[in-house]
Design brief:
Blueprint: H1 6-14, H2 21-32, H3 40-53, E1 57-61, H4 67-76, E2 79-84, H5 87-99, E3 106-110, H6 113-121, E4 132-137, H7 144-151, E5 155-164, H8 184-199, E6 203-208, E7 214-219
Parallel strand pairs: 1-2, 1-4, 2-3, 4-5
Antiparallel strand pairs: 5-7, 6-7
Length: 220
């Protein structure tokens, strides 16, 4: 029996607790200003993953206000490199990160995610320890496949890739959720991306109907 519905989701939200008052304030402010950040149930899952995986380095594509970067670093003390397309958004994120005390752990770089990944490949990743343990993708949905492919050379052999918002309010699963037919291209790209990552021989992938859909992939 499928128990995933709004009632269950609302109940799970009541179980959310934040141990950081400043982060909680940033969450509330972001929600008030309609700034997209990771949802509560997704945050709880990601914090558990960070505690289990204990990554030294996390690469994030899509910074927004810097909320998720701070969640990652607080959870396990990891360093985070976060890529943001918009300079003004990145500057706001830097202010939040500094105010919350994570400036020494989180670096925000500005540019198109694909271009920045190509630039990162030119860095020194000759040692396995220089590479990233976790990649978190939460940016332009039509570019997820590019982000995935371009990140491969700078990820550790046992890396984990987490992709947020892959169900796109249910539209990825069914066209009936795209009532006006406005998101056909985004839907097609996401379906192609999910088909791609779930068919790879060197990764195990699970797609979870959590928040707006999350995929978790680990190298075999």
């Amino acid at each position: 029996m499928n128990i995933t519905n709004n009632i269950v989701a609302a109940y799970i939200d009541t179980l959310y607790k934040s141990s950081n008052a400043d982060l909680q304030n940033l969450r509330e402010l972001s929600v008030q200003n309609h700034v997209p950040i990771i949802q509560k149930d997704a945050e709880n899952l990601l914090k558990v993953i960070m505690n289990l995986k204990k990554p030294a380095k996390v690469l994030e594509i899509g910074t927004a206000v810097g909320y998720s970067s701070c969640v990652f670093s607080e959870a396990c003390g990891c360093s985070v490199t976060s890529i943001e397309l918009d300079e003004a958004v990145a500057e706001e994120a830097r202010k939040n990160i500094e105010r919350l005390g994570f400036a020494d752990k989180i670096e925000v770089i500005v540019g198109d995610g694909r271009d920045m990944l190509r630039e990162l490949q030119n860095g020194d990743f000759s040692s396995e320890s220089d590479k990233y343990d976790i990649l978190f993708i939460d940016a332009a949905k039509s570019h997820y496949r590019d982000f995935w492919d371009l990140s491969q050379p700078i990820l550790k052999t046992d890396a984990m890739i987490i992709c947020d918002n892959i169900l796109q309010k249910g539209m990825t699963a069914s066209d009936e959720f795209d009532t006006r037919g406005r998101y056909k291209t985004s839907i097609r790209h996401m379906r192609e991306f999910i088909n791609y990552i779930t068919s790879l021989d060197d990764y195990d992938t699970v797609v979870l109907p959590l928040a707006d859909g999350i995929s978790i992939s680990t190298r075999k």
